[in-house]
């Protein structure tokens, strides 16, 4: 593999709720512990990264990785509206200092799907007041920690509700199409949902139709709320911590077409990416998250071919997607790209290694052709809590025995680290 540019960021990503454990003030904690929950299991102590972050970060450095994308949990920082917890700020200061001590560049995400319970009670991600509330939280974090944060992603996968809506529609049609790029439990969904939403309504104290968590079905107005939250957060961050580079991440498929499907593919790109470009033009970088492709025909999205290799998530094994999406995004955004998530859920680590190699070959070709890519963050650092699917999906470079919380680095983690070290010489 050809060399990558000097200063290229090599790392892995996590999300607070998926790895820290005991995120008791978040909406997801409440939802996953309800009777009749659509979550296959609760997160519980997850992989105890909240207490084990120092050794986890040290292991990243030992492998040769030089960056770490992780999220700060809003529900910990502001468990009640306007009540900011100094002890939790200090916790994340320790995480950032552990990165500094290990010469790891932190890339901080300020919202990765989970939200404070109080926000949902006040209208959640459909409320016109949420952007200001989110910007206030971001301002507090950056006022306290900004000097330690060189890169910040305001919101993870701000467009994810579009993909969720599509996967729910595809499931209803039983089309065998690609899975969503987030863990959705679609088993017996229709019969579960009525009881589940009644439980949510009681727990949050709002009507069932007004439980607007980040991953809930989204109106057009709600989608605008999310992107406005990014805009207001970006302004607040720049005022307080002007040296910090600000971006947002989007979930993007490599959208392709067969003859007759070109218009459908163009419409999909417009819906999932192009319509949001005006919100992003003033960002410092773009966070690109890709796992597979989506192919459109004359009648819409085509199913994954029967003979295709698939991952635990039902996605087609297609690492070539990453380079293609870098190229497409670069035709619309004139800014550096950070690959903030890319990976596969599989029990066969040899396939993870093959995926990494092929994905990075595509990235290297993009760089050779003049596209600016800042770094590659593999998803994920560790096997973790895949939302509604629980702990059944293994994305990690590091295996975790949840009975003992013992870590075992997989060959793929060693392999990615070796690539990073070769490029550091």
UniProtKB/TrEMBL annotation:
GO molecular function: beta-glucosidase activity
Protein EC: 3.2.1.21
Top-level division of the source organism's lineage: Bacteria
InterPro entries attached to this UniProt entry: GH, Glyco_hydro_1
Claim: Kinase is one of the keywords in the record: no
Keywords: Glycosidase, Hydrolase
Keyword Hydrolase tagged: yes
SUPFAM superfamilies linked to this entry: (Trans)glycosidases
Coiled-coil features, chain-numbered ranges: none
Family membership noted in the UniProt record: Belongs to the glycosyl hydrolase 1 family.
Protein name: Beta-glucosidase A
Species of provenance: Paenibacillus allorhizoplanae
